Amino acid sequence: MAIQLDSIRPEERFASGRTLGPTSRRHRYRAARLIIRRVIGAFFSLCAVVVFNFFLFRVVSGDPARSAARNRHLSAEGVAHLREQWGLDKSKWEQFTTYVGHLLHGDLGTTFIGSQPVSSVIRDAFWPTILLVGTSTVLSTIIGTWIGIKGAWERGTPFDRVSNGTSLTLYAMPVFWLGIVLLMLFAGNQVGLGIFPTGGIADADVDTSSPAGWVNVLQHLFLPCLTLTLAYLAQYSLIMRSSMLEEMGQEYLTTARAKGLRDTVVRQRHVVPNALLPAFTLIFLNFGFVISGAVTVEYVFSWHGLGWLTQDAVSALDYNLLQGLFLVFSASVILFNLIADLSLGLLDPRVREV
Amino acid sequence: MSLLETKDLWVTYRTSEGDMPAVRGVSLTVDSGQTLGVAGESGCGKSTLIAAVLRLLPKSTKVTGQVLLDGEDILTMNWRELRAVRWAQASIVFQGCMSSLNPVQRVSKQIAEPILLHEKIGEKKAMARVGELFEQVGIPASRMHNYPHQFSGGQKQRIMVAMALACKPRLILADEPTTALDVMVQAQVLMLMSDLVRDLELGLILISHDLSVLGQTCNRAAVMYAGKIVEEGPSAVVFGAPAHPYSSALAAAFPTIGDQRFRYAPSGLGGDPPHPDDLPSGCTFHPRCPVAREECSTVDVELWPVDSGHRAACVLVRDQERALA
Amino acid sequence: MTAQSEAAAPIRSARAIVWTRRSAAFKRAFKLFWSETEGKVGLLLLLFFIAVALLTPIIVGPDALSVTKAQGQPYQPPSLDYPLGTDQFGRSVLSLIMWGSRVSLIVGFAAAAIAMFIGTVVGVVSGHFGGWTDTVLMRIDDWMLTIPFLPLAIVLATILPRGILNIIGVIGIVSWPGTARIIRSQTLAVKSRPYLERARALGAGNLHQMSKHILPNVMPLVLANTTLTIAGAILTESALAFLGLSDPLRISWGSTLDSAFNNGAVSQEAWWYLLPPGIAIVLVVLAFTWIGHALETVLNPRLKER
Predict the structure, then answer these.
(1) Which of B62, B195, C207, C287 has the greatest number of beta carbons closer than 10 A?
(2) What would the DSSP string read from start to end of C15-72?
(3) Mean pLDDT of B267-272
């Protein structure tokens, strides 16, 4: 497949950023296979979670009907009726297939308290959690990454020492305790500043779809968001700093400086992009940490999201609700890990080859 | 005027355990079209020497003396002048097999980077030059947009050479360019470098612990031990008829294939090179020297002429010189 | 094992030689560790808390926990009699903190021990045997890592009856996957070293290789990782206790916070009740983190630059 190179002007010959020839098609084929393989892997993880979930709640925990009965004060007949209604008298395998069947229809069962469909209860609590966790994650990623980069680049300076020490301390705190401290500080009237509300998503009489309502929600959002942002920020800045320091020891940086590049250019063009890769993966893979933080913080601030719902389910021993929540949590982490995996493949040319 | 001249160059690392002198009073010259080889064991200060020339050492390092490139002292330049010198006047060929190339950037972009920085040409022209450089070092230009991990060790080393030539420098410093390569590839890279020196009238400083490499490629050679030059002269003489005991030991450690003597008597030198923060008094080589005398532990000799253009730092040479005088 | 002899020294068994070498290495490592400020402060802080935990029954009797025998007024701010004020029952908060240290530390240590044990066994076996064993174990490990740890711990703690042993078990089960990964990669690094090949050539069986060669070389890393696992376990215990999932009969720092939060301490602005448990947790976790950092630096001097 000889190409007549001499007839093409040198500038044109070398201007393209892609490799010439049939290799690009092969690469695309391999990339598609990689994506499919990862998606299938994620699917299997999800299936394993479903099985595990069933195993925990039906097999390990004993009799769900009895636990439910505890809350509803049913007689022995009532318990038996419930058992029959839920198909608990059938074999475990039959129960499992019924469970999966329901799952595929989006039916997660009914709550023990209030007998509402679990799926709609979860759906109602979904967006508050997205709002809280989403805002916190975005803010903490941006700020935390910036702090980590600056701290590593100016290693040993007061900025680095203070930021690193603060991050370590924040990371050592129970997230919910940080929430309580901030609550007292900002919402309390005697000791605190009293400028923020003490809990809930919005005041009871406010219409949350109006602009005034949004402001009210934001007011309520401020403290829990601040808590989570600080907690995540600590972790992200530590990860980024560590990744930067690792990258800064690499030899190609000496090459870059030897070429006459200014220090800031070396940092922007060479260190940061390379350091972002492993940091980015770690951050995504730590999504479980994000969710765990949300659970306790929502409880502290009575933020009616999935986390708050979890605590509700725990105190009421509402197994159906808990089972549904656990499934949602696990599924979201699996999804995020998949996104992380695929994104890394997109960004790191070394991984693309594998 | 020489292309590069170092005068009494001292490089001291500052660590939490105290000062560690890595280069102690090195004075070298290299002219255009000339190749100087610097030999020595690991830790003798060769790499530090090269890094010092372009001021690539960490800020805490103390560098004194003079490094004159075409008469101008690099050590006293301000940052702007220094950055202009880097790569455009003098460049370094690092060990390409190690991570001297940014693994997530295309090679073409990395070679074009200094070109775009130092010259006012557009990206298209820069890429054209990258293609020519590739051809010059013997790699098909069609591969220039690949990533570093897609090349073999030998190819990466040649890419480093191509990159070093990107801004048409007058001086090239090569730090162990062939160490991780196998013998055949090594020969190719060395031949490439000799040809370039000859064709482009470059000055080349070649660092290696492998004397055979230096003997092949360099017209002059210097032997370093514990941060000092202990012998320098024409490479054939320094390696063939060394005057300093260390150079002899170094040369003797390289077996001649086919020579029966080397079969049964490995002639390595016992002991290790001294650690920079724990240097022996007097001549730093005296603990390992097979012909050390009493005064060697107190007297540290300067480089004494053995022949024209050939000097060695040993009391034996000094005495011989005095005897002849 | 053949006995070795030196020119003038008395004949010693190989075991004795290994012991001398190991104890010398340990002394060197400890000196290095002690020279790191982080390690020193961390260790001293930890010893302080352990001392408090051990001595509490003697210094502060169990009566301090009794609700009926409480002598103070509810929600009293700090005073000379009650350095950290009182809780909603009038009990001294300082005593609560001191008693709480016992459970918090015990759960931390025990849960981490379980996690380290399982993680080390899985990691070493997986790394040593490779092949199917490795694939299967690592798939399980991967999968467990994708499950968010607190929801899992909450679920497990909810369906199991409340009790300190169950809490320890739950935290241990949730924490082992991370350890297994690290131990496995270290095992793989050790596996390629020549003395292992030599041992195999001499006829060493799998168990011997794993216990006598791989394990001692993996141990330092295990140790450094353990401190960080303990820190994590303490934080997890506090979260579980705060949500009401810990042993109702025992008091820990987390359960103190739960008690405070749910009995109006926030609206009472009883900062003396709400701050100390958290501060105690932070100090202990920092202590373990510092110790872990110092250990890592001792093992890998390159990290010293950080």
Answers:
(1) C287
(2) HHHHHHHHHHHHHHHHHHHHHSHHHHHHHHHHHHHHHHHHHHHHHS-GGGG-STT--S
(3) 69
The pairing of beta strand B35-39 with beta strand B90-93: unpaired
Residue A83: alpha-carbon gap to chain centroid: 36
Overall domain count for chain B: 1
Nearest CB among A285, A322, A333 relative to C155 is that of: A322
Q: With CA atoms as reference, report the closest residue to C260 among C246, C272, C248.
A: C272
| Number of compact structural domains in chain A | 1
How many Cβ atoms from other residues are within 10 Å of residue B105's Cβ?
18
pLDDT digits (tens, 9 = 90+) for A157-213: 899 999 999 999 999 999 999 999 998 888 766 555 656 777 777 666 666 677 777
Instruction: Please give the residue that has the higher pLDDT: either B276 or C237.
Output: C237
Q: Is residue A264 part of a domain?
A: yes
Instruction: Establish if A204 belongs to a structural domain.
Output: yes
Using alpha carbons, list the distances in angstroms from residue A111 to A32, A127, B282, C263: 42, 20, 87, 27
Q: Pick the closest to residue C104 from C157, C159, C60, C46 (CA basis).
A: C46
Q: Quickly state the pLDDT bin for A14 (edges 50, 70, 90).
A: very low
A277 CB neighbours in chain B (<8 A) are: 104
Q: Residue A182: which CATH number?
A: 1.10.3720.10
A311 in C contact zone (CB under 8 Å): yes
| pLDDT of B51 above 80 | yes
Whether residue A285 is contained in a domain is answered as yes
Query: In this complex, do C286 and A168 lie within 8 Å of one another by their Cβ atoms?
Result: yes
Give the whole-angstrom CA distance, residue C87 versus residue C94: 10
Q: At what angle do helices A175-182 and A211-248 cross, to 10 degrees?
A: 130
DSSP code string of B255-267: PPTT-HHHHH---
Confidence of residue B94 (pLDDT cuts 50, 70, 90): confident
- pLDDT digit string, tens, across residues A138-164: 999 999 999 999 999 888 889 999 999
> Is B300 domain-assigned?
no
- Minimal CA–CA distance to C53: which of C105, C97, C106, C102? C102
Asked if A245 and C238 come within 8 Å (Cβ–Cβ), the reply is no
pLDDT at res. C2: 45
| Minimal Cβ distance to A314: which of C235, C245, C254 | C245
What are the tens digits of pLDDT across the range C24-53?
Answer: 877 877 777 777 788 889 999 999 999 999
Asked if residue B324 is part of any domain, the answer here is: no
B-chain CB neighbours of A11 within 8 Å are 124-125, 127-128
Q: Chain B neighbours among A 16-45 (CB < 8 Å)?
A: 16-21
ipTM of the complex model: 0.85
Residue C87 has pLDDT above 90, yes or no: no
Per-residue three-class SS string for B144-185: CCCCHHHCCHHHHHHHHHHHHHCCCCCEEEEECCCCCCCHHH
CA–CA distance, A12 with A2 (Å, rounded to integer): 17
CATH number at residue B61: 3.40.50.300
d(CA C118, CA C169): 11
Q: Contact partners of A by the rule of 3+ C-beta pairs under 8 A?
A: B, C
- Position C95 pLDDT exceeds 50: yes
Within a 10 A sphere around the Cβ of A296, how many other Cβ atoms? 29
B192-221 pLDDT, tens per residue?
888 888 888 889 999 988 888 888 888 899
**φ and ψ of B229, to 5 deg:** -80, 120
pLDDT at A146: 92
Q: What subunits touch chain C, counting only 3 or more CB pairs under 8 A?
A: A
User: What is the value of pTM for the model shown?
Assistant: 0.79
Residues in contact with C225: Cβ distance below 8 Å, sequence separation at least 6, in sequence order = C116, C179, C182, C183, C292
The reply to whether residue B103 touches residue A260, judged by beta carbons under 8 angstroms, is: no
Say if residues A322 and C245 touch (Cβ distance below 8 Å): no
Residues of A in contact with B87 (CB under 8 A): 258-260
Q: Identify whether A68 is part of a domain.
A: no
